[in-house]
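The material for today's practical consists of a large collection of protein records. Read left to right, the backbone structure tokens trace the chain's path through space. An example says more than a description, so a record of this kind follows:
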Amino acid sequence: MSSSRTVQRGRLRIIGGEWKRRQIRFSGGADLRPTPDSVRETLFNWLSPYLHQAKCLDLFAGSGALGLEAASRGAESVVLVEMHKHCCGQLKDNVALLGAKQVMIHCADALDWMTSCEQQFDIVFVDPPYDTDLVKRSLNRLIRYRLLRPEAQIYIECSAQEAPTISEEWAILRQKKAGQVCYGLYQHSANAVDNKKSPTLSDLL
């Protein structure tokens, strides 16, 4: 998740589901920032009706906090995509520790990986490093390469100071701000049942 040579290490806990309270380790660059517990708890309360047997994709997986939480709560399968070797090595250790057979790890650039992916997903987590255009590029590729199943939901997390403007073809389902973090659930208009246009996370500022 980071190109920095500085490697940080730490632990975080899984909040709910089969592995509730289990701790996982993470390691990565100085800009690795696992989603805070309070934000994860809110997010997975939103997603709770949809997680059972869902096919999930965690782009820019980093610590794996989002994807592993989804697996703990009943997702049928979870794909973690992370380009940095430090993170990938720790992700593999955590998956083995938990016995998470439904989790697959790809050590690859997320944007490149999407171009050859042949799967479709119900839930996608898009939480890239801040101060990049990776949110917009990821959304474009999810549509271009037809990676979304009907009614798929996309989670976006970004800096409150650099919230991207999301195209109006994406309907907002949920949206919130916590400190310097903006986050929300989106659905593409082609997949949405009841569109509610709210095109930018920066509306929260």
Summary: The chain has one domain: 8-204. The two ends are 26 Å apart (CA to CA). The first strand starts at residue 8 and ends at 13.
